[in-house]
Amino acid sequence: MFGGSLQTTAEALCDYFQMMGHRRIAFLGPDLTGDVILQQALSAYSRHTSRQNLPALCSLVRSGAQVMDQLADRWKAFRGDLAVISYDDEHALRFMTAMHKIGLSAPADFKIVGYNDTEASEYSDPPLSSIRQNFDYIGHWLIKSALALADGGIAQSTQMPRPKMVVRATCGGLERIDEAFFGKLSNLDMVVESGSSDSAAKARWTGNGA
Q1: Helix 65-75 crosses helix 89-101 at what angle (to 10 degrees)?
Q2: Which DSSP helix (H) or strand (E) runs through 112?
Q3: Complete domains list, the chain, with CATH
Q4: How many other C-beta atoms can be found within 10 angstroms of the C-beta atom of residue 121?
Q5: In terms of pLDDT, which residue wins out, 141 or 107?
Q6: Most buried among 2, 92, 96, 206, using CB within 10 Å?
Q7: Helix/strand/coil for 95
């Protein structure tokens, strides 16, 4: 089960961006060796792009502004035709900052979704769409596992809960709210909800059964 959430998320976000009409979907993450979660996410992303005959566009970056600025300079050529799946909110926000430096912003010039739904994502400019982990589910199984181990047994989850995508400004979803789009969302392997602070936008998302 370890790392399964990001793996499922990567595939679901590829489907989401394809529903939005994107053919150029990129993966952004850290330049790390031995990161099992990263490897699983990359595997899911590569598998999806191969199956769908999409161009694979992946960048793993080190810390620091310079490498992210260089990436933004490379990917600016895809302006208007770029959707980015980020390993976490940190890399997504760093990329947004780098793109701002060259006059580009989400969702007009590119779309992007982070992971972990940190507080910074809600208050970034513009607010970052992100994946929220199900800590109730995680906590429930941690307790069950601990109690079972204390009793000499084993209790582990056998399936992952569906990831929850919080749609704010950067993924372009708030601009596509209609009945037909809702129908497509229900087929995704993740829950999708509005995270917009705009009351009108939230009202339009009322009744989303995804």
Answers
A1: 70
A2: strand 111-115
A3: 4-202 (3.40.50.2300)
A4: 26
A5: 107
A6: 92
A7: helix
